[in-house]
Amino acid sequence: MIRRGRSEGWFSLSCTAWQSWASLNGVTLNGASVDRVAHKGCAVLATQDLRAAEHHYIMTVPRELVVSLESIEIQAKSDKHLAEILAALGSFGRTTRGAVLCSLLMQVTIACPDVPRGVGVSTPCTDYVKFLPEELLPTFWNDDELELLKGTSLHIATQTKIKSLTREFQQFRDATQEIAWCKAYWWKDNGMAFDDWKQVDAMYRSRALEFPGIGDAMVPGIDMANHASGDATGALYETDENGDAVLQLKDDVKFRDGDEITITYGDEKGACEMIFSYGFIDDEMGSAKVIFLELSIPEDDPLKPAKVFVATSAPGFRVFENAGQVLWEGDFVYIACVNEEDGLEFKIIQANSGERELQSFWKEVQITEMESLKTYLQNDPMWHVFQLRAIVLLQGRVKEQLELLQQSDSRTREEIVSETIRDGPRRMAARLRELELDLLERAYAMFEEKKTEMLESPVVKKYLGQEDVD
């Protein structure tokens, strides 16, 4: 491993040292500082009484310090080692995610005392990565801790993410292991390990923010600000007229000397995503907010292979809460609940290029994008029937998830007693289970109400009568 353990290696600089790093690299602070807060780690704090009218920008970070696709491409022009691995990775190295993860690994390598000088070009980011804590994301939970997630939407999400990271790491290894310096310092003996790749992924996912004109990026200093939702959010992040990243106070917000200044990581994000990407649940979160449930097309559906092939949306649906109301959305559901006898058809057409392609049709009208299938169904006289099918399908899937969560909850309470389970994962898993159980129960009730409503439709009554269904 590049780092020798979870308590040493990469992360050695304190919040106090950040002030010196910021001053050296042109970060401007106006009535704020970065310091340690109990139970939170580093945070942005007011160093005097602040009002938005007088202290609009409390932090300005030069654009060249921002870790983004743009800055990495510029850095690669003067760092042949970075340029070499980005080129070796092909299209992945040209994505923001691929470029950022590679850049972070380069900076960690440069900072590693076991790697001689001359590998890579040191930048302000070389010290910046030393300030970043090891986030306790679920990809770092042990087997007993992951067992606590069974029945939640986070269990499948974490399994899927670990598989994705494994593929990425293997791709990265295959692309770079024959590069001489990579072979010597990354792949020889006990060099880079999968945990190193997981760590830069955790750095990126937990710190990345979307800035206008820059895109997804890691911004030193601004990314030290902790999350608070709703009215508790104290500041916004933006880019100024010079393209620099800025942290600005919200209008009509006041801070006293020593108060913590927070930003939002996304008020719309649910409990699952907060743990998945940031390793915590907001203490004020009273709802799971959103749950994504996977959905499979039945095996006995003769159109299943074609449906899976043409579907461009995720195979599932979202149950979410909005203004106290439980709702759902998911284009894939409509692909799953209509068939050939309804008017859905697939044809293999020979294109002008000579290649054969599968095309979709609804009652002989070609569907160019499957997301638009719902529009065709809404304009069909049988729309209420299609709605009923969707509701029955979704309610059944919600019931299945409820039973899985309840069964695993009982097993979790009775069987999983392990000294290897840390307090953080235990508390987060318990809270997530509680929130998702509540949302699923309310979703089931919502679908029951919708089903009752649809059964009163004259179209549905006629359809069921024709089918001799009680």
Low-pLDDT runs: 4-10
How many domains? The number is: 2
State the CATH superfamily name of the largest domain.
Answer: set domain protein methyltransferase, domain 1
What name does the CATH topology of the largest domain carry? set domain protein methyltransferase, domain 1
Question: Which shape, going by the Cα principal axes?
Answer: globular
Overall number of strands: 16
Task: Please compute the radius of gyration using only Cα atoms.
Answer: 26 Å
Q: Which strands sit side by side, in order, in the main sheet?
A: 1-5-9-8
CATH class of the largest domain: Alpha Beta
Note the gap between the termini.
Answer: 65 Å
How big a fraction of the residues is strand? 15-25%
Given the helix and strand composition, which structural class is it?
Answer: alpha+beta
Average pLDDT across residues?
89
Protein name: SET domain-containing protein
GO molecular function: protein-lysine N-methyltransferase activity
Organism: Pseudovirgaria hyperparasitica
InterPro entries: SET_dom_sf, SETD3_SETD6_MTase
Structure description:
The chain is α+β, with helices and mostly antiparallel strands and 470 residues long. The chain has 2 domains: 15-255, set domain protein methyltransferase, domain 1; 286-466, set domain protein methyltransferase, domain 2, CATH 3.90.1420. Helix content is 43%, strand content 16%. It is built from 16 helices and 16 strands. It has helices at 15-24, 69-76, 80-88, 96-111, 124-128, 143-147, 153-176, 180-187, 194-207, 271-278, 304-310, 332-337, 373-378, 383-415, 423-455, 458-466, and strands at 28-29, 32-37, 41-46, 50-51, 57-61, 209-211, 215-217, 235-239, 245-249, 254-255, 290-294, 316-322, 325-329, 344-350, 356-362, 365-367. Strands 1-5-9-8 form a 4-stranded antiparallel beta sheet, with no helix packed on it. β12 (316-322) and β13 (325-329) form a beta hairpin. α3 (80-88) crosses α4. It is globular and about 80 Å long. The N and C termini lie far apart (65 Å). This is SET domain-containing protein. It comes from Pseudovirgaria hyperparasitica. GO terms for molecular function: protein-lysine N-methyltransferase activity.
